[in-house]
Write a structure and sequence with these properties.
The complex is a heterodimer of chains A (about 180) and B (about 130).
Chain A lengths: L3 H14 L4 E9 L4 E8 L6 H6 L16 H11 L3 E7 L3 E9 L11 H11 L4 E7 L4 E5 H8 L7 H18 L4
Helix pairs in contact in A: 1-4, 4-6
Chain B lengths: L6 H15 L12 E6 L2 H5 L2 H14 L4 E6 L11 E4 L6 E3 L4 H14 L6 E2 L10
Parallel strand pairs in B: 1-2
Antiparallel strand pairs in B: 1-3, 3-4, 4-5
Classes of the chains: A alpha+beta (about 180), B alpha+beta (about 130).
């Protein structure tokens, strides 16, 4: 994957396939420890202990159209390439949590990419899912919560193109204030 | 801090849109709108399906075509990603492969507007002997 926002889009899709109604995407940049953490948590139907143990194997997948599932193995590989680590935990009926730690300043760490576009696309394509995006840097933090957004929008749908355009700009401006690493 | 957009600005957009809503007939029936599903699994994302989806959302709005654009998981056509499934109201769905923004433009102009089939269809509807 070219950048980290694509991995996030990919893992969030797993949450949606697990019928999650709440997905939390958190990015924590820690300059002091040179760490870039991506945490994706959901309240989907979770995985059995056997599936969690084997899910990082590319030959393990829940989809029926193909026998290969590369989303998680690719993310794990990218994290480990930067001497980071990857972990996934899940409980059936509760949800799943994916944590990928990258070394912030490692030359092999992919750029974040268009994270604003990814978050907004996920929100607009799944208007019935609450998506919370939280980004922390040494400068501060920013939270984007679709529950707040839909409340502010009243009866206007989050799928309206002008709303989508606005939300992307809003997220990008706030992230620039945070001086996020690109 | 400069002029960073906030929820207050979003409220202004909402009021603006609410004014326009009265003029446009809001159809609550999804079957009467064009449905566009962009495959967004690992293979799709890696091949640029996000740009295609962004393009559809922007362009359909610009050309004033009412449609629902959503994302789906893997449709099985990983070799032909990005793939898009289009269902015109009342018709069987058609899957297009190798869709880039140029092809998406063609699909909007020819297929969605005029019902004219464009190159690049992946045959997905077939009947087996058992069904008959």
């Amino acid at each position: 994957m070219k950048d980290l926002s694509m991995h996030i889009m990919d893992i969030a899709q797993n949450s949606i396939s697990a019928k999650a109604t709440w997905i939390k995407i958190e990015i924590v940049e820690n300059m002091d420890e040179d760490n870039y953490a991506i945490i994706i948590e959901d309240n989907g139907f979770g995985m059995s202990p056997k599936l969690v143990a084997s899910v990082t194997d590319p030959y393990v997948t829940t989809r029926t159209t193909r026998k290969i599932g590369l989303g998680i193995p690719l993310l794990k590989q990218n994290a480990e390439r930067t001497e980071g680590n990857f972990s996934i935990s899940s409980e059936e009926g509760v949800g799943t949590k994916v944590i990928a730690n990258f070394t912030l300043n490692h030359p092999d760490r992919p750029p974040i990419g268009d994270i604003a576009g990814t978050i907004v696309l996920l929100s607009a394509a799944n208007p019935n899912v609450t998506i919370q995006y939280h980004h922390v840097t040494n400068t501060g933090e920013y939270t984007f919560d679709t529950a707040e957004i839909t409340k502010t929008l009243d009866d206007i749908s989050i799928t309206e193109p002008s709303v989508i355009r606005f939300l992307k700009e809003m997220i990008n401006e706030n992230l620039n204030e945070l001086k996020i690493s690109r | 801090m400069g002029q960073v957009k906030s929820l207050a600005d979003l409220r202004k957009i909402k009021e603006n849109l609410q004014g326009k809503m009265g003029l446009r007939e809001k159809s609550n029936n999804p079957e009467s709108l064009v449905q566009i599903r962009v495959a967004m699994a690992t293979c799709g994302i890696a091949s640029g399906a996000k740009q295609v989806m962004d393009f559809f959302i922007e362009e359909l709005d610009k050309r004033n075509i009412q449609a629902i654009v959503t994302q789906t998981g893997c449709m099985g056509y990983c070799f032909a990603e990005p793939t898009v499934e289009i269902t015109l109201p009342g018709q069987a769905s058609v899957v297009y492969g190798y869709v880039n923004t140029q092809k998406a433009d063609e699909i909007i102009e020819k297929y969605i507007k005029n019902g004219e089939l464009v190159e690049g269809i992946i045959p997905v509807n077939y009947e087996t002997i058992e069904k008959k």
